[in-house]
Predict the 3D structure of the following.
Amino acid sequence: ILIVLFAAALRLIFFSGIGASDDLLYTSYAYEMSKNEFSFPANHHGTRLGLLYPVSIFYRLFGVNEFSSNAFVFLTSIAGIVLIFYFGKIFFNEKVGLSAAFLLSFFPLDLVFATKLLSDAPSSFFLSLCVFLFLVGEKSKISFRKNLSFFMSGIAIGIAYLIRETALLIVLFFGFYAIFYKKIKLNYFLIFFGFMIIFALESIIFQVNTGDFLFRYHSITSSWQEVIKYSGTYRGTFPLSLFYFPYIIFTNAYFGLFYPFIIIAIFYSISKKEKKSYPFILWFLSLFLYLSFGTTNFLEYRPFAAIPRVLTIVTLPALILLSHFLSEKNLIISKILKPLTMGLLLLTSIGFIYLEKSTSIDNLKSIYPSIKQLVKPIYTDPRSKLVLEYLSGYSKEINILAFNIQENDKNNIGRLNNIKDSYILINHKMLNVILEAHPFINFTFDEKICNQPKKWIIIKNLGKEPENTILYYAP
């Protein structure tokens, strides 16, 4: 209970909130869903019903705000700490469970994304739940409990899939598990049956609303290719790009200093032939290796985008293995290495999270109270427009319009040189984020974004160059 309270407190202290990425799209879709206006857009964000439906329910109950937007993800993060405790307690001992729960409570990747409306963390929780139920079924001696566990494991996979389609990678774990232990049981089919029930329900929803039973599959295969085309995979060039995930687990702040100890723990378990740890090693390695070297498309090689949150899918097995290692009866490990390691990981993790706390919409949150008092139209870049609409709770009380950020855009509507008697918000911080997020797109910003006309009057200026946000009045 103390660990759960500690975890909840940390997540509230380091509350991330909505940013300017995928989470912003989820808020708009969930809001439309809460108003029964959802149009089922043909992209991978709009088909993740397992994320959108819960958030839309929170919107109906509490309106659009930071609490309602992130409550579902927050709750799954806390539930993950309870789950990892029972993983350790049931398959090792209570000490392993408590250690694993404590490590997860401040693991930077989980802590940061516990209050971000993104699909990775909640999907990973249900995926971990599916493995838990499967292993409980394997352990059970009572036929009914075994079969029920397998069936519910399939249901958990289905829910994880509803939230994020990469949940299907768990098939790799089941495959490696069956090969390693040389057994395929007939009642394993109950896992597939449980998943198919969820898949069928989702497909019926799409059939009723779009006329396409496989709408999600068709939407993802088409939209994801556009994402790769314009955004790339952020991995760099081949062949070094294949080792990007192995590289970032040791260098990215979201992983703290955990992974050197996790790798040691894996080798220790293998060298000591710790059979209890084998399912968790299979779980970790099967998914991590495929994310590192596998493809998102079987027709051509397209690796997974190398962003840290993708690896939430292997957080639980990694920390269970680390906890098992640190809970060994060896006096050097238990009396010296364990307290030193946990103390080091706790202090450094808090430091890394503190340094990463700034978001791309901080300036917009600060300037919004001034903007909502304005009567005349406010022009800003398209991404900042979406953020301001979210901050307004999608109330449509503020007249926010988008200007064209690219010089080569010939559309007269929204070109900066045509805006008169209105306010213009130049959000340099957001524009820098757009450039960083889309390195493969050749942006040529409108000249007036960088060199504002002298006749524009500065109303408010937030931040420091080159990431300041300036509100102008264009007479």
Observations:
- The first helix runs from residue 2 to 13.
- The chain has a mean pLDDT of 89.
